[in-house]
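Q: Entry one of two.
A:
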Amino acid sequence: MSIVTGTWQGVPAVTLENDFFAATLLPTIGSNMIRMWDKVAEREILRVPDTLASIQEQPGHYGIPMMMPPNRIRHGAFEFEGRPYQLAINTPVGHHIHGILRTRPWIVVHTSDIDGKQTITTQFRTTDFPELADQYPHDLTMNVTYTLSEHGLYQEIESTNHSELSAPFGFGVHTWFRIDGEPGKWTFQLPVESIWELDADAMPTGNLLPLTALFSAMCDKGINLEGSTLDTVFQIGANPVDSVLSKSDYTIRYSASEDFKQWVIYTKGAAQDTICIEPYTWVTNAPNLPLDPSVTGMSALAPGETRKLWIDLQISRS
């Protein structure tokens, strides 16, 4: 059992390790947990980048990238409490995607190795990055704590608004799970209420659609991933924030706190090597949807408010 500070591909890395798992975090690349190795099953749980260039070029495509706000904002622009916001345009078609966290450095503020649990906390403060002043003019601190145990990886996100104005706040992760080139062996279960209709830019139109027969089966006993092509946004509704990815002798349960109102599931074409399971507190482009916040998850941190979220990744074997 240990916490080892070193490097990965020449950048700072911290590895948490116990008898069951080894998990590697890159604090300076969005505080992304890029690797989680299961020592018992001898398999990678997450999609690991081959090189530093891989994750620098596609920071949202490996490990557990953190996103605030999650997914797309149309033209990077929205209005909140009468104030205009303009996020950087970073897609070829003129939109903003995946927020301000995933490429920027975080600092390590705490580590501990107690009672068989290895813990690391990293911190991001918006005011440390002057270029964000025009995009997100709020003094926001985020502390993310990862705890590795014999059961898996627990993530706690604590966000505080130090500003004198309410700060729009949507958060999500884009977690890439390996299915080892064997989609037919894996079943995916996800209890949800409805599907967001998407437009040509993969943003919600505002219409919620009933579940198809396929997705009703996904809610109930789960669906086999063989031949599945998913790039789908779901509203959770009154269901638990819980997903299960499993095969005959191995189960990954991925769950989150009730602040998470939406799931996005993405297989990058027909499911083959990975499935990306993404809990979001607000839906894609939420600030621009003319719907009640109870539907979109649109939210803000009041001046001085601290909000805590959690995400839990648990592994069981048989």
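Q: Entry two of two.
A:
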Amino acid sequence: MKIAIIGGGYVGLVSAACFAEFGVEVVVAETDPARLDRLLAGEMPIYEPGLDALVAANRAAGRLDFTGTLPEAIVGAEAVFIAVGTPSRRGGGHADLTYVFAAAEQVVMALDHSAVLVTKSTVPVGTGRKLAALAARLRPDLEIEVASNPEFLREGSAIGDFMRPDRVVVGAETEQARSVLRALYRPLNLIETPILMTGLETAELIKYAANTFLAMKVTFINEMADLCESVGADVHDVARGMGLDGRIGRKFLHPGPGFGGSCFPKDTLALARIAQDARAPSRLTEAVVAVNEARKAGLGRRIIDAAGDDLRGRRIAVLGLAFKPETDDMRDSPAIPAIEALAETGAIVVAYDPAAMTAAKPLLPATIRFGETALQAIEGADVLVVMTEWNEFRSLAPVRLAQAMHGRVIVDLRNIFDPGAMRAAGFVYHGVGRGDRPVTDSGADKDSEHG
């Protein structure tokens, strides 16, 4: 079986490598010359653990190839996957489908045989129906089926998510389209992966609904963390007490600086706009977007309050820049507004990230310095800020930190350190939701302050 994937970005590249590992012949069409050159040279344009080895193995086996010519990629393909970007449109938050429709039109016009056109990109509800109409209008001489096959890949663990998924969602209107997708995912039958066959609109909405629900869990526990700080509770015990309830589950109940990355910010905003346009507004989704944006915007103030108002000339070490560990993705990373706020105070900010510094440099103020290692960034620091929970940061011993740092303030926005151990080593430790702030007398006075 042969398929083509249009777009060699994160989703397209991971999907191509994993389908090839299933034994499928895959050709990826990538129109960016620089990215294509890197792929042909065996270099990964993204950071994803294990991806380079998987791509190399399947290229060597003859199952995976790359081309800059779309018509060449789709020759003989039973299915053509569209895996191009759908960024938020400026000013509104709607998903920008320019690249999706441009790719679809090129595919439809270049096809010389019947095939299934599959959206792997995250697209608003109704996009598949529009693509089907486009195909019927441009190529009435061919049977071009349209299907939706949303991805549920987490950056940093995408290969495992593809090879051992919780479920596969397929939106298709005909048995031909369903049979092609079933054949592609047949290897997952061995591990009894549920494959949900549904309609186009339903599949498109499942993707947005799933991401928004997870983002809502993150936002909720962050608000509970703020409450814990005010009343003297421990958010980790609160999360554990919630997560042990089988109806809730423990995943995505980890407090922090707010969600970022390529999916949650874009998809929550897009779902809010989809719901508004459909005259069925999702107030919960709108609240998730607003609360998360406010949290990220307030990070700088949180750090300044912990470190002392006058930071001019003081050295601030920031560990972690990517929005999460095991990726170099800086999209909507909470580190960006936090570092911008620190730079405005006149502080000397020295940052380090194991994977994301190249991607981060053009996004951060020109005054930011970068360490070659975590300890180099920490050396002589007055304040240490943890932004991303890379495992290598967890192993930094309190004694070693005390030896390296000039000051004794730690702002741990990921709660990777033991507060007791840090305080025993002489640090003023600030975590998230660990009841470090004094207990207030009551909530009534605070409520009245805010109207």
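A: Comment on entry two: The domain at 208-295 is CATH 1.10.1040.10 (N-(1-d-carboxylethyl)-l-norvaline Dehydrogenase; domain 2). Residues 349 and 368 are 5 Å apart (CA to CA).
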